[in-house]
Design a protein that fits this description.
single chain, 181 residues, alpha/beta, Rossmann fold, 20% strand
């Protein structure tokens, strides 16, 4: 299937420190998402859909560490993406803050890719995923959240994010809906 014009996938912060039980800021059960992230990223690569993968890339004195334990410090194993989530042609966009838009390259990349429809998945729903989906909606783009390819720390907070996302004009979809014919 050829890529839909203007469609871009966003793999948000699928990194070892969030995905694995030994990670510094592990989301319970997140390791079970790796096959879904692999499938979505492989789908994007196979069909020519641009894939932007954000990664936390913190310095040792990151402001976030006043709230959370140190995680995803540049150059550590925890900052890496698992091999199963890496595909050819993937755009890795590092950030030192929760918000994907804190990287000044993002608007230029979105314009260069002609991004009109954004498909978002990853970690953590109530933090970095929320910043991504709400930020993308604010740019006037259509945004779809793949609800069976996200993980969170708090179910109640994640549910609130999804309600707010839908109220702001976002659409919730499943991985099967995104990867079907």
């Amino acid at each position: 299937m050829p890529a839909a014009p203007g469609r871009v996938f966003f793999d948000i912060d699928t990194q070892i420190d969030f995905l694995f039980p030994a990670g510094a800021l592990y989301a319970l059960g997140a390791e079970k998402l790796i096959p879904a992230i692999h499938r979505l990223n492989t789908y994007a690569a196979s069909y020519g859909v641009p894939l932007i993968s954000s990664t936390c890339a913190h310095t040792e004195d990151a402001a976030e560490f006043r709230i959370w334990p140190p995680h995803c410090i540049k150059g550590t194993v925890g900052q890496l993406k698992p091999t199963a989530t890496v595909v050819p042609g993937q755009i890795i966009l590092e950030k030192n803050e929760l918000d994907l838009f804190s990287n000044p390259e993002l608007p230029r990349i979105l314009d260069r890719l002609g991004a009109q429809q954004c498909v978002v998945y990853g970690l953590l729903t109530e933090y970095c995923v929320k910043c991504a989906v709400m930020g993308l909606l604010k740019t006037g783009r259509k945004v779809k959240l793949v609800t069976d390819a996200i993980a969170h720390l708090s179910q109640a907070d994640a549910d609130r994010v999804i309600r707010d996302f839908i109220a702001a004009g976002g659409e919730c979809v499943t991985m099967a809906e995104i990867t079907a014919g």
